[in-house]
Structure formats: C-alpha cells, structure tokens
C-alpha cells in the first residue's frame, strides 16, 4: 500500500513548506515575507531589470511580481522607473533601504540553511543539491514537452 508520506512529491513539498515557515518566523521582526524577500534578493543580485525578467528569475507570475513590487515600494525597499527603451514596461530597482535590509536578511537565511543541514555531512549536502537540481531539470523538461504538445 502506498502512503502519501512516502511520496517524493509530498516529502519535497513538506520540506519546502517547513523551510519557508522557519524563514518566515525569522524574518517576521523585519516586516518582510519570504515571498517579498525572494524578489528583493533578486533585485539585490541585479538591479534595474524589467518586471518580466524579475518574474522569470523569482519564478513568480507577472501578477504576483506586480503585487510584491507594490508592497516593496510601499515599504521603501524597491522602486519602479519607466523603461527608456520600452515605454510600456518598467524597470525595478532596489533602494538603499532595501539593500541594507537584504544585507541584514542574508545571514539569517544562511543561518536557517545551516540549522536544517545540521547533522548532514558536506557530501550529503552536495549530493542532495545535485539530486534536487537533477529532479528540477527533469520536471522542467517534462513541462516543456507538455507545452509543445498542446
């Protein structure tokens, strides 16, 4: 008999939700959600990108990116400016306040990851990383094949 607790999809989803919750609890004092931080961190990595590119990098749809950028702008962490090359789009930028907050949050994220990796060897962590990337790649290929069929 197959138990859902043994399903790889369930295990991955559960682990992801637990990590997100742990990070959310650590970020609560800074009044930022993990979803907002993922977008802020992408802007920290590369500033002045289009919302479309930000959407791709943050793996969020355009509607969610717009909503998250609205929230980040209200908090003074990001801003949008007209794209001189394409008047129909905007470029997103991190503000100095957003950069400072991200530099505060990065070590917290690193600490959460260290905490959950406690008890794992470097080899196990490296293997887990490789296997998760392999699984993600296989899922992406399957999604593309389905897109080509429809």
Automatic annotation (TrEMBL):
Domain of life of the organism encoding this protein: Bacteria
Boundaries of every HTH marR-type domain copy: 5-137
Keywords noted in UniProt: DNA-binding, Transcription, Transcription regulation
Entry's Gene Ontology molecular function annotations: DNA binding; DNA-binding transcription factor activity
Record-linked Pfam families: MarR
SMART domains for this protein: HTH_MARR
SUPFAM superfamilies to which the protein is assigned, alphabetical: Winged helix' DNA-binding domain (SSF46785)
A Gene Ontology BP annotation from the UniProt entry: response to stress
Name of the protein this chain belongs to: DNA-binding MarR family transcriptional regulator
Organism (species): Paenibacillus phyllosphaerae
